[in-house]
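[Q] Does anyone have a clean structure-token version of this?
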Amino acid sequence: MLRPVLSLVVLYSVVMTVADFEIIYILTRGGPLNRTHLFATYAFQVGLEGTLIGRGAAIALFIFPVLAVASYFTLRIIRRGEEYA
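[A] Here you go.
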């Protein structure tokens, strides 16, 4: 019975982790030797600070398929749980 709720929480957690731009950027700005970059902070650094806007946009667009795959599998788990109910 907890499977649908738990899978939605996991999906929300994944989306919010990927979208956590402010915390990483304010605290470390990518960190020592660029070790704490997320896709969003790396795209910002390459695209806006490094003036390679096309490359930054390509990095930012890579976020979408990753989140789409994660949401697809999560919604599949939720639907499978509804079939048994």
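[Q] Thanks! Anything notable?
[A] The chain has one domain: 3-84.
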